[in-house]
Each structure stands twice: as structure tokens, then as C-alpha cells.
Amino acid sequence: MSLFEPEPRRPRAPVPPPDVTQPLYPPPGAYPSGPPGAYPSGPPGAYPSGPAGTYPPDDQYSGRPVQPVQPGRRPPHPDERQPHEPGPLQYPPQRYAPPRVPERQLFQPPPEHPDPGSRLPARLPDPFESQLAGRRLDPAGATAARESTTRIALIYPELLGTYGDGGNATVLTQRLRWRGLSAEIVSVPAGEPVPAGCDIYLLGGGEDEPQTLAAEGLRRNKAIERAVAGGAVVLAVCAGYQVVGESFPAGGQIYDGMGLLGVETRRSFDPPDAPLPPRVVGDIVVEPDPSLGLPTVLGYENHGGRTRPLPGADGFAFGRVLRGLGNGVPEGTDGRIDGRVIGTYLHGPVLAQNPALADLMLTWVHGSLPRLPGPPEVEALRAARLRALQVG
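Below the sequence we write its predicted C-alpha cells.
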């Protein structure tokens, strides 16, 4: 046979047919059961004598009712059950665990003359980097105003990031890059000093304990106050809005804020004998102040506080509430604006649903910017929400 000739096929041995006369399972006693006592049968009464597949009303080992088992399955041996530690069950579990950061590190003020070679906070990755090539606009009108990288600080995202407000940083960064401008997100976790050299500072929503931790750290740090004095922009949402005010409630106490806005927040401004108003959760629609030149602003709110301006406070309300509660004051307004500091109760993230507000903040940093339409998905979402909420 040649080396390149195929080997002849060999005939297969015939397969005998199955013997259907033999039983599928071995008869009883086919396997040894071991010496007496090799397999414990448990204490008396460990297995029920009632109907098949049921347990006694109370499990003598855990003290809790036991669910019936499937028919045909043996009940678990007592030694196989999970041990039960006595004591009350902790239910529901805590929703928030405070960060394990030493207080001296969390509230350490920034150095007066930082080391130029020191490490900057981590830069967040841009999820839209691959989409930039086809959507850049001519930046000729913008680069004349400012050519350095715009730094957008996301403040304490693990404390003030409960409702997804960190997305506001992504919106601002992307709308700059679509215009051909350089931008970066500086994430400032609790435990690191807040840099005073950023252009925009973002504070989001959070629960009571994280809110008080964030307020204490920012009051001691003073970096945002110095940045605002130098022309930086601040967007503070919900708990962040209360923190940049003069005072806010948490856990039955009143805490001092940063004082960037002349507002105070309380659970209620009604007489002490009046019942507390309910928490507000739902859609909110705001008609911005005409001086801002913005279209209708959409979002959602989730807060239990009521916020009002202090007598003689500077600034003006962000807008008039068309649907929802907002500040919860008789004037029917939401938020507060003083200089380049914006406070509002609108989540969403608010800039994702309202790109015109994002562009307004960017013009405060860059001056005039080329017009950037869309994205069309946002316009379609806004139109659908306005129809659903029956707002003109």
C-alpha cells in the first residue's frame, strides 16, 4: 500500500441490543449498608412521622418554620442544617456603610503651596472616546477664549453619588470634546483633599450620614470656596444643594453648610405642632428664570427637606416649578443661583436631560461656544416626557 493511499476502513463490531429483561436499578441489598451505627439516624423525632414531605410546625434546631420539601427527596439530617445563632435578626440590612477613612485624613486641609509633582486624583475613563471622530465641531470660536484643559471635579462620589448625579460630569466632558476642546474628570474621593484649581465642581445627592460627612470635609477644606472666588462654576444637586447652603437637617439635628448660597433647609417650616410633610418623590418640571435663556428643565426629585432663602440673601431662584415640589416654599420655586453657583433639587442626571443647562455652565468657563445640537435621542426623550407630563 502506498504512503498516500487511504487506509481501508475496518468493519465495526456489531452492537448487541439492550437487554430489556434486566431491571434498571439494583435490587434491595445489592450494596452493603455498613456495620451497625455507621450511619446515624439522628435523635428521636428528628424526622416527622406525619404526611410525606412535611415538617413539624416548628424546627427544633432553628426555632423557625421550615418549608415543605419536594416529594421523593429525603429530609436533611439535623447535622446538615445550617447552625442558627440566637438573637434578633437584623432586617432590613443597612443601606449605607460609612467609608473607613480616618477623620484626620478626610478633613485634612489642602497645602498652601502644593507640590507640582504630587499625584493628581484619578481621571475617569471616557466611554465615548471612540465616537468623537465623527462628531467634532470647528473649535475656532472656542479655543480663542480658553485653550487649557477644562478640569471637572466630581466631589466625594461615594458620599454624594446615590442618585447617579455623577453622570453630570460625563455630560460636561463629552460636550466639550464634541467641540474639539480638551476636558478631564477629576474624581475626588472622601479622604483626598479637594483641589482648588478645577474649573467646575459637581456635588450630587446622598443620604443623611454621607451628607453630614461631606459637609464637614468641605467646610474644613475650603478649596471650593477659594475656587468660586476665582471664578469656578458649581452645580450642587439635592443633598449637595443643601450642603452649599447655610444649614440643613440630618438625623434630627441641624448642621452647618458651606454658605455658598444664602438658603436654609429644614424638614418643615410649619409650626412645631404641625405634622411633618411627606417625602417628595417623582417628576419635576421647572421653567428657568428668563435671565438664563434656557428652555423648560426636566428631572426627578427625591427629598424630604424644604429650602428657603435667608432674608437679604443674594441671588435668585433657579426657576418656577410647573410640576413637582422643588424648594417646597409658597413661591413655588426650585433651586437657587448666586453668581456661578447653581443649586437645584433636579436629578436625572439633570444635565443629561437638559444639555442647554450644561452648555450654559460651559460658557461661564469658556465664553462663547459653537452651537452643538442634539443629541437627537435627548430631544426625543424630552418631547416624550413633556407629553407624558402634560406640560406645554
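The first helix runs from residue 103 to 106.
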